[in-house]
Amino acid sequence: MKKRNKLFSILTMIALPSLASANSAALWESSTLSKVIESNELRVCFEAGYMPFEMKAKNGSYMGFDIDIAKELAKSMGVKHVPVNTAWDGIIPALLTNKCDILIGGMTVTSQRNLKVNFADPYIVVGQSLLIKPSLKGVVTSYADLNDPKYVIAAKLGTSGEIAAKKLIGKATIRLFESEAEGALEVANGNADALVYDFPSNAIFSSQNKDRVIHLDKPFTYEPLGWAIRKGDPDFLNYLNNFLRQIKGDGRYMEMYKKWFANDAWLKKVQ
Questions:
Q1: 75, 96, 122, 236: most buried by Cβ count inside 10 Å?
Q2: Listed GO molecular functions (predicted)?
């Protein structure tokens, strides 16, 4: 009996690496990453219209921060980038039914969406940020510095900016406007000390009005965006997270970030 047990243990030790290798091969063959390389194209879902992430250019092509990242991702795989413009209400179903390989389209990571798809690590946070008067440079370095009755804070009525302003800097004098443009102009004209609004909108306005406002571009509420893929694909998820770390480490991410968030040269190309 002892000899049989010993023989069984030896056979198991021999078989286990083979089984592990077979399982790894099966996982790789079923991975989207493997299929993308085999097809020589990366199909990317998004909905054009969310500036400056994805927009339609006057020449009919697509442009934006997400588009550039998607192109860089396809380049890293050695495959063709294929944009798939998709209506927002059908964008997750499009991914799940294999109409695209990945969703890179300004999608906020939420627990509800995470039940349907997996997200790579957040690649940008687009919570609330601040536009401040140039005279407050160095005086106001975060939202906490504005929590004083002497400051007038602009916010758009009925938005998360209004909620954040009232919750986090409630001691300030808060003035509400029908549009973010009105609030931003109040700051630019010196009638308000700061505007609390979405990071992308503030970035665009500040790039157009560099001498009139300062953008404190570190969001102070947490609204992370992530790339979505189908569930059960650890190889693809691992690749995406490593790709993100690499482009952030070698400077490519910052180059793309500055191109879309630090200037407005691209606006004249938008359809």
A1: 236
A2: ligand-gated monoatomic ion channel activity
